[in-house]
Amino acid sequence: MSRLRACIIGTGSYLPARVLSNAELAARLDTSDEWIIERTGIRQRHIAADGEFTSDLGTAAALNALDSAGLAPADIDLIIVATATPDQTFPAVATVIQHKLGMTHGVAFDVGAVCSGFLYALSVADALLTSGAYRTALVIGAETFSRLLDWEDRTTCVLFGDGAGAVVLRAQASPGLSSDTGILATRLHSDGRYNDLLHVDGGPGSTGTTGKLRMKGREVFRHAVTNLAAVMTETLGAADLAPADVRWVIPHQANLRILEGTAKKLGLPIDRVVVTVDRHANTSAASVPLALDTAVRDGRIAPGDILLLEAMGGGFTWGAAAVRW
Ligand code: UT7
Questions:
Q1: Which of 42, 73, 82, 307 is the most exposed place for a label (fewest CB within 10 A)?
Q2: How many structural domains is the chain composed of?
Q3: Residue 23 has pLDDT above 90, yes or no
């Protein structure tokens, strides 16, 4: 039965110029390049400059995605930004980006699901586009996590970086078959029992300060592999696909060992997983669209390929999306 599908017609990304290496961290903390690489796969991360905000990163990624889609801001009627590091407590970063893009039309709002934010934003955009309410959306993941870090805490500060990624989605009439191009299925989950395992110890409504990121990494790790494998399997099932159909897993980039563990659970070789954690570290909501843009631009992703996007983060929140390119 014919229906609308949300199709990714452009991707873009932006990384701040400053690169912070493991060696620089080891010079000021009790850590080492060897420990960070062995336990996480991270070799470097990008850090936003003074005065460079999440909205700046998101705007640059959005312009890059618009350029790849051959569209202009005038063509967009919906902007959803996934972020946990807004420039200010409010307004939403999405409206700041809307303004920086020179738009006075359309609707723009943020979603907060930390590292899963891009999957949440993509799912909301998919629903709004396939209902016919909007036609062309910018979905952006943008973060400046460097500003949430306790730079004295070696168990967290070595793990994260700054960046932004974006996709342009367009509602397109499709036959309504699993062979359609576009987003085939999305699945989201959350479980607030685990808030304490990964959180920020401040906020406007409690301490009146921004606070710093706190994480019990080992426990988050254990949940991540189980939850991600489950939601990936669930999402593939919803799209009438099997793991063997997946050409590229586009995962949230928290830890190379998590990527290896989830791939193994699905019976997929690691060479079908797009890995950027070595260069970008964990950029929270930006990591999935950054990895997607990397693989699109280096030519790995071909028309017809099945992509499985997935992420897990604070809350806990987790989700996945199956997409035919
Ligand atoms: O994006 C949201 C989702 N986030 C994640 O998925 C993160 C999940 N967690 C992880 O990626 C890993 O658990 C970490 C990378 C955070 C930690 O790796 P781990 O293998 O689980 O290490 P651990 O926490 O069990 O710590 C092992 C040891 C400890 O020392 P002791 O107690 O055994 O003496 C830590 O103090 O490693 C020590 N350690 C470090 N050593 C050198 C922790 N951080 C560091 C460090 N450098 N940066």
A1: 73
A2: 2
A3: yes
